[in-house]
Structure formats: structure tokens, C-alpha cells
Amino acid sequence: MNKAKKILSLVVAFSAFIFGGCSSVQNTTPESMPENPSRTYTLSMKVDLNDGSVSYDSFKPLIVIDGAVHPMKHIGDGNYTYDYVLPRGRNSAKYYFQFEYDINKIASGRPAHCQLKSTEVYEFKTQSKFVVSMETTRGNVGSKITLLGKGFTEDDKILVGGVEAKTDFISDTTLNFTIPALESRKSYQVELASADGKIKIGDFRIDDAVLAVSPNELNLRSGDTAELTFYIGFRAPEQGYVIDIKTNIPSSLIMDDVVVPAGKKSVTVPIKAGARGNGFIYVNGFGFKEVAIPLTVR
Questions:
Q1: Beta-bridge partners for 165
Q2: Which of 178, 238, 240 is nearest to 209 (CA)?
Q3: Is the Cβ–Cβ distance between 289 and 208 less than 8 Å?
């Protein structure tokens, strides 16, 4: 580089400092995109210029894909796009951005040519498996939810908050899954887990469900036996569904643990009245609002 060019480079650097020096190229292209029949994918960048007075007529937005240079289209507000046709037999492409422009005036009073480049070489990939929509984003434990998409297989599983949900393969475009027993009034990340990894689908909020108990009140003599039926409204998972039972008069109630067997929607358990007392049986389960059953032992 001769002396004149060195001086000009120093002037350009100095002027960039004076005018802000914060110009940048930002990649706004998703890392992965669903496959489409035309094999055309939109790659995009956003350019922020803070170099003082620039010549808009000099703007030259470029994308370099697999070594080939292509002009990009301005869509407004510093955003540029290019529609790339991916060759057949390929599911990815590497690329970077380049943006050229002129500064009208610098310290020397002469225009200067500038060039911005991506800070790295990017890669986008196409997805043969993807989710288009989830039927709803909230519901109760035990709700059956439908997923629509493409490329589903019988080995795919749905995770809700990291917990594997019962997943039913309907077709390569449809999956059904059942909301597992999780705490209500919270939102959980839903993911599609396959041999290729996990795909984030979205959040699902679990609302309170109503756990039915029959009878809804007990009036017994000390030493009497009775039965309580608990109905959860969905088929219990393989490990069964545990129902938590508490009472504020423990000496008045004798009963075993309550577990709805796998595949069943309800369970009936025997109870025995103990010492005299008045109080409640409190029934709780993941995803359900607490139920209080009045209990009198006379």
C-alpha cells in the first residue's frame, strides 16, 4: 500500500470514529426453515449505518452464497432480502453478507468508499420435519391436543415441560398428545423429540381441572366402612396417577393411598371411620383444584 492510500485509510477510520463508527450488518435469517416444493428460501440482513452523510445511490447490498455473489433487494428500513433456490440434493448452504457504500464527505473533503462484511460465515438448513400449528395453547391435564406439520414418524414423542406425554401417531402430518400430570396454573415448553433432536413448538398453559369425588360428603359412625370414588376424567399413565389425601382430623379417618391404575379413569377405595370428629378430607392431584369433602364421625 502506497503512502497516499495509507493516509486515506487513516482518514476513513478517523471519520468513522467522528461520526459514530457503529455501522453494522446483522443476519436476520433463521438457522433452519421448513422444506418447500419450490426449494426457494429467503435470506435476509439488516444494515445500520452511522457514518454521517452517506450516498444512498451508492448502496450495494450483496450476499455471497457458496462463493457466488448475488445482489439483494431493499424492502425498507435498512432490511434486505434475497430469494435463494437451493440445488436439489442439498439441505443446507453457507453464506455471508457484504454491503458497499460511499460517504459523501470525510475530513479531507473527498468522498470515501466503505465496505461492511458479516462477522462470520453463516449456514442455514432446511427441515423435513416441522410443526405448522398446535391446536390450542392451554387446557387441563389429560387434554388431548392435535399437532399439524410434516415429516412425523411413529418414533416421535412430545415433551411438555420436559415430561414425555402420551403421543399418538396419526399420519406423517398429524400427531395427538395428552397433557401429562403437571402442576396447574403454569406454562410449559412443548417440544417435538425425534432421532434428529428436539424442535421447540411453543408454550402450553395448564389450567385447573375439576377432580370429581363421590360421595361429596361423609357422615359415618365410628367403626363404619364406606367407599370413595375418585374420577380424573382421563386415562392414567403407565405408572398410574397418584391422588394426595389429607385431613384435619386424622384420628377419624383410616384409608390407604389412592392411585388411579394405569389406563383407568377412576378408582374406588374403602375407608373406615375412626374416632369421633368433624372436619374435611382434602383431595389434591397435579393439574386439579383442591376438593374438600366434609367428614363427620359420630
A1: none
A2: 178
A3: yes
pLDDT one-digit tens code per residue, 224-277: 999 999 999 888 888 899 999 999 999 999 999 999 999 999 999 999 999 999
263 and 236 Cβ atoms separated by less than 8 Å: yes
What strands lie across the sheet with 144-150, from one edge to the other?
130-134, 144-150, 174-178, 166-171
Eight-state DSSP code of residue 120: S
Picking from 228, 243, 254, 242, the residue whose alpha carbon sits closest to that of residue 283 is 243
- Residue 151 near residue 129, CB atoms below 8 Å: yes
236 close to 285: Cβ distance less than 8 angstroms: no
Instruction: Give the predicted TM-score (pTM) of the model.
Output: 0.62
How many other CB atoms sit within 10 Å of the CB of residue 283? 22
What digits encode the pLDDT tens for the residues 11-21?
333 333 333 45
- Dist CA 252 CA 77 (whole Å): 73
